[in-house]
């Protein structure tokens, strides 16, 4: 019973809104999203250990390896080698590529909104100009007629 209570008391995993909003545009599958959420929740320096990740998520380590490889091929994550606290080399999962892609999507979205506003303003300007021309033409016809 204690084991079940421990599981129930575990902190919830928080899904960052930007990931929820953009994961489809990034071409990420639902399974890849689960891996990303896990890695984000683990913190900045997550050791590349498919067995441990698989155990935590209830996935086969080979499936985890496949999903991490997919994310790497999609340039969402990268595997970097750094020295750990013992001075030994260790592989870590880096999310820098993910953050760069999210920032470029957000910037592109802002640029698109700005472009749409410019088009809307231009259309309104044209409408006002056409109404003005129409009125001038009718006034001219009244004066001539």
Per-chain topology:
Layout: H1 2-8, H2 17-22, H3 30-42, E1 46-47, H4 50-57, H5 61-73, E2 78-83, E3 89-94, H6 96-144
Antiparallel strand pairs: 1-3, 2-3
Helix pairs in contact: 4-5
What does this structure look like?
This protein is mainly alpha-helical and 145 residues long. 66% of the residues lie in helices and 10% in strands. The chain contains 6 helices and 3 strands; from the N terminus they run H-H-H-E-H-H-E-E-H. It has helices at residues 2-8, 17-22, 30-42, 50-57, 61-73, 96-144, and strands at residues 46-47, 78-83, 89-94. The protein has a 3-stranded antiparallel sheet, with no helix packed on it. Helix 4 packs across helix 5. The mean pLDDT is 82.
Number of helices: 6
With strands numbered from the N-terminus, the spatial order across the biggest sheet is 1-3-2
Question: Please, what is the average pLDDT?
Answer: 82
Strand content: 5-15%
Structural category is mainly alpha
Global shape: elongated
Query: What Rg, in angstroms, do the CA atoms define?
Result: 27 Å
- Helical fraction: 55-70%
Note the run of SSEs as H and E. HHHEHHEEH
Cα-to-Cα separation, first versus last residue: 97 Å
- The low-confidence runs, each spanning 5 or more residues with pLDDT under 50, are none
Number of strands: 3
Most strands sheet: 3 strands, antiparallel
């Amino acid at each position: 019973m204690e084991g079940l209570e421990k599981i129930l008391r575990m902190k919830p995993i928080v899904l960052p809104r930007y990931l929820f909003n953009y994961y489809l545009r990034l071409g990420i599958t639902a399974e890849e999203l689960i891996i990303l959420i896990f890695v984000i929740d683990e913190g900045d320096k997550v050791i590349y250990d498919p067995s441990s990740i698989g155990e935590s998520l209830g996935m086969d380590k080979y499936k985890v390896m496949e999903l991490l490889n997919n994310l790497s091929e999609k340039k969402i994550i990268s595997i970097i080698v750094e020295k750990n606290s013992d001075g030994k080399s260790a592989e870590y999962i880096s999310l820098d590529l993910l953050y760069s892609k999210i920032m470029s999507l957000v910037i592109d979205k802002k640029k698109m909104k700005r472009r749409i506003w410019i088009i809307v303003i231009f259309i309104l300007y044209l409408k006002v100009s056409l109404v003005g021309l129409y009125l001038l033409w009718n006034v001219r016809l009244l004066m001539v007629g």
